[in-house]
Design a protein that fits this description.
This protein is an alpha/beta fold. The protein is built from seven helices and seven strands, in the order βαβαβαβαβαβααβ. The longest helix is centred in the middle third of the chain and has 30 residues.
């Protein structure tokens, strides 16, 4: 990003943002003038992402999303660097297993929930106490259409995303009226995380989408920018499905 807009005065924290959807979200927020803290597990990848986004407006805090110390550090360093924390986008996620849920290792299931759900709650709690409780703001949780319907072979991921959608509603109810909390449920977005779902057969995968293509990170970035903007001031507790029309096929059989 070469030409940065005038500062908006708002600050965001985006988890899992060294690449993929998280990076697309951070890019959209920086593009409108927000200052942003991004997190990720790989310190080198995070540094590269900060440079791409603009090191004068973006900081990176490396660590694992489910680690409590990392959550605290990310919130504290954001407050130290920018003096406020208006928005949190919980994007960090994992899906380390592919197969039937009947044979799922329960330790793996715990790991999925720790990263996909408990970490989102942790970041929400810490941001609430650090800034949002007294000053307001918005939270966006990146869920998935896998949380809205059965998701064969990625069942643990789907169940965790269903939990995240319910967590969104719980937080929206509890944090109102100062903080709005919404979720985004994407279909397949072209990222390294989702590569196994389309690699080598993208045209075939995209053929089932009424809009004729798979998603890209900027599709989700635009949705997150809307849900953290004044244009969505009367929206909370909702899950915005961003799926290229895929669910339109649900009744076709």
């Amino acid at each position: 990003m070469t030409e940065l807009p005038e500062l908006s005065g708002k600050v965001a924290l985006v988890t899992g943002a060294s690449r993929g959807i998280g990076h697309g979200v951070a890019e959209a927020l920086v593009a409108r003038g927000d200052r942003v803290c991004i997190t990720g597990r790989n310190e080198d990848a995070l540094k590269e992402a900060v440079e791409r986004l603009g090191a004068d407006r973006v900081i990176g805090v490396a660590g694992k999303a489910h680690d409590l110390a990392h959550q605290s550090e990310a919130v504290e360093r954001t407050m130290e660097a920018f003096g406020r924390l208006d928005f949190v986008v919980n994007n960090a996620g994992t899906n380390p297993v592919f197969g039937p849920i009947a044979d799922l290792d329960l330790d793996v299931a715990r790991k999925v929930f720790e990263t996909n759900v408990i970490s989102a709650l942790g970041f929400a709690q810490k941001t609430w106490h650090a800034w949002q409780k007294d000053n307001g703001g918005a939270i966006v949780n990146i869920a998935s259409i896998a949380g809205l319907a059965p998701s064969p072979f990625i069942g643990a991921y789907g169940v965790s995303k269903a939990a995240m959608i319910n967590l969104t509603q719980q937080l929206a109810h509890e944090f109102a009226p100062r903080v709005r909390v919404n979720a985004i449920a994407p279909a397949v977005v072209k990222t390294k995380f989702a590569q196994a779902l389309y690699e080598g057969r993208e045209a075939e995968a995209a053929a089932s989408y009424p809009l004729g293509r798979l998603g890209v990170p900027s599709d989700i970035g635009g949705a997150a920018a809307f849900l953290t903007s004044e244009q969505s001031d009367w929206v909370t507790g909702q899950t915005l499905v961003v799926d290229g029309g895929l669910f339109l096929n649900a009744g076709v059989g």
